Amino acid sequence: VLERKNKQATTALHASEERYRSIVENALEGIFRSTPTEGFIDVNPTLVQMLGYDSKEEVLALNLEKDLYADPQDQQYMLDQHRSKEAVRNLEVTWKKENGEHIIVSLNSQAIYDAQGQFLFYEGLVQDVTERKRTEDALRDYVERLETLRGIDRAIIRAQSPREIAQAALRCIRRLVPCIGACLVTLDFEAKQATLLAIDADGESGIREKDRYLSLEALGDSARVVEELRQGELCVLANDLDHSQLPQRIQALWTKEMHAVLGVPLTFQETLIGFLALGVERTDALNDTHVEITQEVADQLAVAIQNARLLEAERRRGAELEAALARQEELDSLKNEFIQNVSHELRSPLALIRGYAEILADGELGELQQEQQKPIKTIVRRSRMLSDLVEDITLILGAETRPLEQMPLSPDEVARTAVEDFRVAVDQAGLKLQAEIVPGLPPVSGSLTYLRRVMDNLLSNAIKFTSEGGTITVRAWQEGKQVALEVQDSGIGIPAEQLERIFERFYQVDGSARRRYGGVGLGLALVKEIVSLHGGQVTVTSQVDEGSTFTITLPICEG
Ligand code: ADP
Fold first, then answer.
1. How far apart are CA 159 and CA 166, in angstroms?
2. Is the Cβ–Cβ distance between 540 and 493 less than 8 Å?
3. How far apart are the C-alpha atoms of 460 and 472, rounded to whole Å?
4. Whole-model pTM above 0.85?
5. What is the pLDDT of residue 549?
6. Distance separating the N- and C-terminal Cα atoms of the chain
7. CA 486–ligand 1 middle distance (angstroms)
């Protein structure tokens, strides 16, 4: 019975061993047994295949330290792990295949002991994760690349000047491309000048301001790179760069191990505006991806630098304009002050001259002789013109500084007085004067002196710019809550494109041709300023050779 039982047990054990063997033989993972001294003592076919050997015997004969582990420290680490923890979980190490190729494997193993607690061997499971690692690495690279490019973007947005942009970009690119040194140079072919915008980002402090500017010729050996880029090369990999032929300033900053350079153009609207140069030991330190990244960064940089340049130029212009404006304002106020002083000084003597001349002309100081009359009249007329001018100047400058007096005034009376005052002058000019004034118009509020000045100026312009035989019409009427005062003439008219400008101070329609009319171009400016001080508006319609109509509207005063 015992024997039968024993036999049964042996058969069962055999069956179980058979099943185990079959699992091991057919497993998709590599399975091994090993000892620290003998290396592998058993491996399954998957592991043999994973390592690229033809037979199990070859694998069992391997010296693990020399033939299997790419890095012997990995094996040491694995043994240490076992000693302290007995089991190794998901340890990633690099193994060498039969053909020398490297694979990355993930190891799980543990120590096996017999019933007496004696160490037998390690038993382990091996998974080839090379492909997965590669994908992961590629993904990580890709994410890092995106991150860095975004970092450059952010830095560019924050940067204030082309130089800051360049520094930020160099700092970022060195995280992606394994270069020893980097520099960014802008080129100005017209001025035959190159500017070292940034070198090596961190070595920045080593460069003096005046050392940033080089003539194109001084670029030495790199001029060759520039020439090739100018021919439209997408990038230049120069292996034989002669160190001694580089500009001294670059030589001093770039390390001696740098024997090759990758030059990538910065182009804006198809013109070469600079280049990005990365220094490497040998050109084979760079792969296609590195070159691609460098080009991407260079494209980004070109646009950003160009924009920053434009912005800088714009800012400079803005500051210049501001300074010019401030100076202009200062001159303006000096001029106003001067004019005010001069007119103040002119006023009293002029009033005296005019007064005495008028008394003389009236014959109050004795009858004038025939030949005296004309000159005296000229004195009267001219001194009147002069005091009018001084009056205009004083008013226009005074209106800027003094508040307007507010009196209720009758607009039709203002119009009628103006007609009366000018009747003689109109007559003398051989013109006809018509009045269409609605009587009893509601009052407006303001200053009589100022409103008279307005009518005076409009009427004297009408006389001045209308030739003999013409007609001048003065109108006054009510229009809703406003009254209108109008002076129309049948004179030379004003070209449409000048209509806006005649209200500017000192503006005269083609000054030279009309110089014969006299005046300084202040009248209408004064009209406009006075009218707007009264809360009203002045408009003009005109037709060349047919005449002009100036209309003023003033608000009727409440109460
Ligand atoms: P001034 O008469 O002293 O030159 P104004 O400011 O009164 O200055 O007028 C500005 C300019 O507008 C005049 O030089 C003239 O060319 C034009 N102008 C003004 N009024 C008339 C008008 N009634 N007919 C034609 N041109 C006029």
1. 9
2. no
3. 11
4. no
5. 97
6. 139
7. 16
Q: Which of 465, 492, 510 to mutate to test the pocket of ligand 1 (most atoms within 8 A of CB)?
A: 465
Tokens standing for 331? 């001159």
Q: How far is CA 135 from CA 102, 127, 139, 288, 443, in A?
A: 16, 16, 6, 18, 92
CA distances from 260 to 239, 299, 543 (A): 4, 22, 78
Smallest CA separation from ligand 1 atom 16, residue:
509
Residue the block writes with tokens 């083609």: 510
Nearest residue (by CA) to ligand 1, atom 4, is 521
At position 366, the amino acid (one-letter code) is: G
What does the alpha-carbon distance between residue 185 and residue 161 come to, in Å, rounded to a whole number?
14
**What are the tokens at 36?**
């620290």
Rounded to an integer, what distance in angstroms lies between the CA atom of residue 170 and that of residue 276?
Answer: 9
Q: Is the predicted pLDDT of residue 252 greater than 70, yes or no?
A: no
Tell me, what's the pLDDT at 400? 66
Predicted confidence (pLDDT) at residue 464 exceeds the cutoff of 80: yes
Phi, psi angle pair for 432, to nearest 5°: -100, 140
Alpha-carbon distance 12 to 4, whole Å?
12
The pLDDT of 372-392, averaged and rounded, is 86
Q: Phi and psi for 542 in degrees, rounded to 5?
A: -155, 150
User: Which of the listed residues 461, 465, 507 should we mutate to test ligand 1's pocket, taking the one with most ligand atoms within 8 A of CB?
Assistant: 461
In which band, very low, low, confident or very high, does the pLDDT at 8 lie, cut at 50, 70 and 90? confident
